[in-house]
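## Example record

The block below lists the input lines for one assembly entry, exactly as stored, with component labels intact.
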Amino acid sequence: MNATLQDQSALPIHIQSLTKKYDRLFALNAVSLDIRSGEFLTLLGPSGSGKTTLLMAIAGFNRPDSGSIKFGDEEVILKPPHKRNVGMVFQSYALFPHMSVAENIAFPLKLRGIKGQESTDRVNQALATVQLEGLGERGIEQLSGGQRQRVALARAFVFKPRILLMDEPLSALDKKLRDQMQIELKNLHEQLGVTTVYVTHDQREALTMSDRIVVINDGQLCQIDTPHAIYNQPVDRFVADFIGESTMLPLTRNNSGDLVYIDQIISSKNSTSVNTEALLVIRPERLFVINESNIDRENTIVFNGKVKEFVFQGDTAFVVLSINETDTLSFRFSTDAAAADNYLQIGQPLSVGLARHNVIVIPKDTNQ
Amino acid sequence: MSIPASLVKESGINEQSLLRQSSREKRLLLSLATPAVVAIVAVIVIPVGWLFYLSFIGGDGQFSLENYQKMFKYKSYARAFATTFQVSILTTLICILLGYPLAYFLASLPSRLAGLFMLTVLLPFWTSLLVRTYAWLALLQKKGIVNELGLSMGLWDEPIKLVHNMTGTLIGMAHIMLPFLVLPLYSSMRKIDRDLMQAASNLGATPIQAFWRVYFPLSRSGMVAGSLIVFILCLGFYVTPAVLGGGRVIMVATQITAILENQFDWGAASALGVVLLVATLVVLFVATRVFKLDVALFGNK
Amino acid sequence: MQWFNRPVSDTQITQWQRMWLYIVAAIIMLLLVVPSFIVIPMSFSNSQYLEFPPETWSTRWYETYFESAKWMRATITSLKVGFLTMLFATPIGVMAAYALYVSGHRFARAVFAFLVTPMIVPVILIAIGTFYAFGKFGLNNTITGLVLAHTVIAIPLVTIVITSAFRNYDLDQERVARSLGASRIRAFFVITVPQIKFSVATAALLSFLTSFDEVIVSIFVSGGKNATLTKHMFGALRDYIDPTIAAISTIMILVSTILLLITQFFGKKSS
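Predicted structure tokens for the full assembly:
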């Protein structure tokens, strides 16, 4: 824990009815969102969903048409970016090439009249926090991609902003480094305790790092929840589809109003909030191959079908099962060296099970 | 908790102040361009507009088309236009003929080496046009180096007339205009993806086919842009034809000066100028439409 | 010679098969450069006529130039006008280029097209137009009038050079500076300017040269004690071949070459 980097409390952000139109299209359509003090919140959505527009509006680079943004109790929507006191990391890092690493990090301090020993101390402390001790005199050209990322980060928090914004900061890194940086960013956030808003289109990144995730599509917020809830209880088809892999099967209703898939009751009338046409969402890793020994009929939904495709992918094997003429089901299971390569034959009959507590039911229509 | 695609309220929170702030910022930004715009209006738009007006005023001070009728009346006016187009077309062709291989050569070099050889194109570009015209005058005169060299090598028997005529004008013009063609052409060639030539080869094209079917079409936009710049600059050129043409190559610009110097006829001079401007704009308009060019192409200079 | 048989292009043409291209390019490059430089030895001739190579050497034409009040006055006028043009055209052009690049305004393209009109309108038209209009305001034969006209001719060059510099510049840097607490103006001067300074310098030198070398507008608009060097040179060229021009040309070539090499040197260093 680093006491001096944390001596200012974090601020909550209250966003109300934020609207931004480009020509006739809504980039943001009356977005309201409360970001809690000190949380790591991720804005997740496909490109063009409005997530970057929202972040830029918080930073002050994008002026909305109407709405309110409050940092704590203070309305900031009319404030220019340099008066918002918000740390920001850009996708391109935007390090100043005509300054050394230390000069880059000292830049916001200089603007705040912090000079001399205090400035040096804080720059060194920031460098230590991002594990770049002793690299202050380096030029930007001499740094690797990961190091640049860290410098951009240090520069964004060295002046103790109470809000930190990041726009896809890891997208320029290769996969291995990205995975490592995700953990580091999460640790850094815990250390700084600053309210952090993070934009990404990578769902795995969002699930790994966030306290809460906001899924955005077409300028509207689809769901705001913890990673666990977003994955296990998606509210609609878009969220279920965008986060993780899934198979969706159409459900019908029986005479008593329960949701049914091929004679099996998936969800009783009372236990579901969906009252329109519905879909069953199945995560591929939640299905398991049934043999007579492990079956618990009471709490398992069983699907019978024939193996249509089988792909060995190293850690897991991926199977597509056809249930009837129209429906297929995909699932994966962990591989085992003993099974060699003859796990499953194409065309072989197979039964898979889904525990009842893994059932996800969503309305069929996304646009309610 | 999905938010319904709500109706936008008539007047959202802070809408008025945000709008005010936005238009203030736009005005502020635009005002940065104001000095440039005002200067151009003062030095180009108003004076040229004035000439436009003068061109419709007859000798008696009334509105008349007589200045434009002079173009049909006096053969020298029509001849000036014919000469202008002749010189401009020939100069452009010579520039393409010389500029294309040069740009191709430069574009095929590694960029460090290309930068070095590029100095040979940039140096004339940075050297005064008067100096270069003067140099050609010295080179091409009767006792100039070219004639002396030709005579001593036995290429011709008596001094040939290389200057104060069309030949001299074209040599000088081509030399002055060449960089304007090479620079945009070179930068468009640099942008051509080398993989395309490999792909063409791989698909069975001979080097010559690969060049004509792939490379040449891709370099066309740069070539057209460069040629257009050269052609337009030629249309209004004055110094080089006046010096190297020695009174035998009368282009529109020369004609305009002559009218002002000898007859002080502002109406006729303005009319010639207006026609020249219209011709330039027509060429520019047609070329940008036909070749789908952008004004930004001048950014290659 | 292995080099000759090495494939050079992506279509496996060898150096040897390309020889013709090298020869043609070499000839064209020589034709581009040599004529101007031929003037240099000629300027040191002792003869009344332009000779190459000179039979006897002397610096008499340089003496004529430096001792002539007329040439000196014209040179000073040209330097003064060039310098003032640079002083006005550079900031005006930089401001315009910045506004057009950053605003992304609907009219930005149209304004840009308007700013390059001085390059499209035939210069002769600008010359007689300003001559006529300046006459009404008593600006002919004044430094003010000349600087005004030359500034307008230089504005498109500056705008184009700076716009292309912005295209290679990551505007996020200015954004990040603003998020870190710098006002827009401060961010521009502290972050943006240091990174486009070589383009600004190039644009400034180009606008100086544009004015210094400009002929046609100067012929019409300048005169009397404020006649420019180019106006006198043009007069001397049309009437007879005065070897003094060779001396002046040599000096001008030298200046251009030095300025060009400076921009090249610093341009390399910056990139």
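Chain B touches chain C through 94 residues (CB under 8 Å). Residues 1-9, 295-301 of chain B have pLDDT under 50 and may be disordered.
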